[in-house]
Backbone:
């Protein structure tokens, strides 16, 4: 097998931002402030980033919000200039940092294909030859001459992705673009990307918070943390490292107290394993519990603590309530047990609320995130499809021969 | 495969070389502006004609009332054509400047997500005003033929004065587009500045009156008046249409031409220097 060549090199790239960056404030406020004290408003979004990508690699770029992923993509795609260092690459590079940036509502779908294609650097001839393919992929044949302002957001995204998918670059940058659209279209996009990378010439740099997509698409991954590269290795190792970091911090989320504390508030929400260890990372059939500490200021009748679990896309799956409780002043711990709940592998969000009757005292949406890992399934004798639905719980069934 | 380097200390004219790749984008930006301007309007492209026509009638009538008895030309039709010739060229200058000054801010969503040479935006925004100018100019000529008003046409000076004015407007547009990102005051200030410039140019104010009542007494004022590089080309443009005796002042024309060239180079230089900063200031 021939030695693969380096197609993209990022060398000693750092990026400094000025907080409150406006020239106006430079002129007025800071110059006046500087007379009295030198205030350091600098912020390093990236520090000394070095890596090389070989042709045909699919690199996942993971990291928490604010870790510098988007800044790095913007530097590579030549939108912002690095403060130090350089980026070099070979061939045509296309960045899909936002699906449909540049669409204009008053233009029809067809006109927007040309506009968006040319923004992405395609020539008119190139767009023309691919036009039918693009329209067919978007499944919008019926609406292609309607102004896109009448489109639903899903249709909008479908059209934009269809154009981008037909770009044919050597290096493709994707920034969470697959987190949009309905499930079936997301699948279609993943398939399209897999199709694009089949011949091994295309290089992809892919930013996502969805570890499943990263695992299924990428062969390597980079973990960014506070603007530096923490790890650059095989996808499995990096994802493992990222998730373990996530697990450590997951229970430290600050809970904002309600502005006005009347009867009580939620002080702490913890997700624990069956061994009472804080965790956010569970196997499919591993029981977990959600421990909620509520602080009651005044003895009240009819207090209700509830939790809700929703999908990562914030589709509510179910809610669970306590009976109306009569709680005395002080702190109480309410524990919910997952028991025989079988969630499909993926990320889930937990919402917690404290209420009296119909009145919510303290509501914490998406306060914790848990991840269900793929493992050997508890029931080997049935066909299980991960992709259809969120729950794996199986129904009892009976079969009677009637004829 | 083509090698690309992005570095901190890159040549500021680097993105200029990418313009040919994005010529399609240039065309579609113009097309988009054109479609959007006239979609859902009753008059459609008629507005290109209707707007300047209204202004010509307004300013022509006022000019007639003011100048009655002060110059040799006293009929209303002359006032219409005299002011009109100035207004159609003023439309070109002011709309290129105004459209251009908003070009970057209006497209901030694409600028912050996709790379392309940013200078394409103010350049593309100048095309529609140019098309408007051609349309109104043709209508102007048609009306002159229809009313039997004597129109002269000196193709050489006509072209030169339009070229200089286009160059100057383009330099304002490029410079203001990037300034507008850093200082949003520009957007608020520009209409008033344009108004002042409009009245300072020989469009509404008859240059003959200025000559006889001001320049003849204070020659220095004439020098100052023509320091504005727009002043002479505008005057010459009017003359090429309306006056049989052209008597072009080559020195003043050369001054405006060189001034326009310097401003254009300066504004392009400034634009390219600030290009990468734009996205950080949105």
Residues:
């Amino acid at each position: 097998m021939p030695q693969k060549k380096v197609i993209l090199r990022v060398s000693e790239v750092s990026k400094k931002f000025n907080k409150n960056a406006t020239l106006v404030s430079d002129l007025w406020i800071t110059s006046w402030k500087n007379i009295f004290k030198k205030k350091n408003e600098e912020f390093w979004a990236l520090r000394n980033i070095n890596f090389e990508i070989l042709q045909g690699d699919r690199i996942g770029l993971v990291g928490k919000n604010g870790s510098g992923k988007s800044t790095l993509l913007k530097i590579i795609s030549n939108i912002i200039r690095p403060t130090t260092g350089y980026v070099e690459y070979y061939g045509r590079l296309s960045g899909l940092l936002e699906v449909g940036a540049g669409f204009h509502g008053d233009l029809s779908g067809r006109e927007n294909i040309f506009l968006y294609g040319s923004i992405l650097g395609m020539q008119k001839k190139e767009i023309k030859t691919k036009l039918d393919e693009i329209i067919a992929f978007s499944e919008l044949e019926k609406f292609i001459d309607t102004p896109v302002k009448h489109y639903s957001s899903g249709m909008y995204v479908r059209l934009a992705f269809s154009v981008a998918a037909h770009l044919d670059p050597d290096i493709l940058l994707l920034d969470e673009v697959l987190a949009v659209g309905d499930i079936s279209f997301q699948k279609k996009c993943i398939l399209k990307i897999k199709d694009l990378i089949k011949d091994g010439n295309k290089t992809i740099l892919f930013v996502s918070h969805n570890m499943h997509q990263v695992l299924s698409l990428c062969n390597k991954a980079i973990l960014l943390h506070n603007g530096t590269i923490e790890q650059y290795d095989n996808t499995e190792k990096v994802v493992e490292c990222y998730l373990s970091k996530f697990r450590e911090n997951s229970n430290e989320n600050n809970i904002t107290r309600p502005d006005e504390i009347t009867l009580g508030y939620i002080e702490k929400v913890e997700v624990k394993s069956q061994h009472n260890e804080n965790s956010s990372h569970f196997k499919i059939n591993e029981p977990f519990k959600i421990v909620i500490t509520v602080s009651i200021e005044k003895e009240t009748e009819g207090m209700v603590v509830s939790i809700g679990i929703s999908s990562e896309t914030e589709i509510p799956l179910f809610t669970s309530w306590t009976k109306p409780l009569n709680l005395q002043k002080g702190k109480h711990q309410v524990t919910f047990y997952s028991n025989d709940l079988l969630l499909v592998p993926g990320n889930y969000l937990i919402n917690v609320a404290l209420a009296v009757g119909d009145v919510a005292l303290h509501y914490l949406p998406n306060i914790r995130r848990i991840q269900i890992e793929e493992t050997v399934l508890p029931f080997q004798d049935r066909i299980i499809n991960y992709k259809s639905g969120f729950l794996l719980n199986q129904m009892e069934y009976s079969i009677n021969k009637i004829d | 495969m083509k090698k690309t380097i992005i570095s901190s200390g890159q040549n500021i004219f680097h993105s200029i070389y990418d313009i040919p790749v994005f010529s399609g984008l240039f065309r579609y930006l113009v097309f988009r502006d054109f479609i959007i301007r006239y979609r859902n309007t009753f008059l459609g492209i008629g507005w290109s004609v209707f707007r300047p026509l209204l202004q010509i009638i307004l300013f022509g009538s006022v000019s007639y009332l003011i100048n009655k008895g002060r110059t040799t030309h006293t009929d209303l039709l002359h006032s219409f054509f005299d002011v009109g010739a100035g207004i159609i060229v003023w439309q070109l200058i002011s709309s290129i400047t105004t459209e251009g000054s908003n070009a970057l801010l209006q497209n901030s969503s694409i600028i912050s997500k996709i790379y392309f040479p940013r200078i394409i935006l103010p350049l593309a925004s100048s095309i529609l005003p140019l098309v408007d100018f051609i349309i109104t100019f043709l209508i102007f000529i048609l009306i002159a033929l229809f009313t039997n008003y004597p129109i002269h046409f000196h193709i050489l000076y006509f072209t030169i004065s339009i070229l200089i004015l286009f160059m100057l407007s383009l330099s304002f547009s490029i410079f203001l587009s990037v300034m507008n990102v850093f200082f949003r005051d520009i957007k608020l200030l520009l209409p008033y500045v344009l108004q002042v410039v409009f009245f300072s140019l020989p469009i509404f104010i008859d240059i003959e009156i200025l000559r006889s009542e001001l320049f003849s007494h204070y020659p220095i004022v004439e020098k100052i008046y023509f320091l504005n590089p727009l002043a002479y080309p505008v005057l010459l443009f009017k003359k090429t249409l309306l006056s049989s005796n052209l008597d072009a002042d080559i020195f003043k024309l050369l001054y405006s031409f060189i001034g326009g060239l310097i401003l254009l180079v300066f504004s392009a230089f400034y634009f390219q220097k600030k290009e990468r900063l734009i996205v950080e200031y949105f």
